[in-house]
Specification:
Helix content is 0%, strand content 46%. The protein is mainly beta. The chain is globular, with a radius of gyration of 14 Å.
């Protein structure tokens, strides 16, 4: 786990600022993953680049390099290194993660 980012909940709404200077690599891609109703397990592959995963809402359980980490508070983060085998579970549609990656997305050859 890396540093937590401050989740600010106030009467005007909710804010989670992520300072890119706090990310341990240059960010080239950003994406959000949301769990479906009933949950889903995703990943199950070797990471092609470094990623910093930040929990936005709900919870997420990660298995990375034979270690299990549960993110339970918005702003908690997990650093995934290139080559780490990563698999994660989003238990329901309230679970959302933000992923900051050091490489752009490449469409896998097996996809149309």
């Amino acid at each position: 786990m890396t540093a937590d980012f401050p989740a600010i909940d106030e009467p005007r709404g909710w804010l989670l600022p992520v300072e890119l200077d706090d990310v341990p690599f240059p960010v080239r891609r950003v994406f959000v993953v949301a769990g479906p109703p009933g949950g889903a397990t995703r990943g199950d592959h070797a990471a092609t680049c470094q990623e910093l995963v930040v929990l936005l809402s709900g919870s997420a359980t990660f298995e990375v390099a034979l270690a299990t980490t549960v993110l339970e508070r918005p702003g908690q983060s997990l650093h995934v290194r290139r080559g780490d085998h990563v698999r994660y579970h989003l238990p329901d549609d309230a679970s959302r993660i933000l992923v900051l990656a050091e490489e752009p997305y490449v469409v896998p050859e097996e996809l149309p």
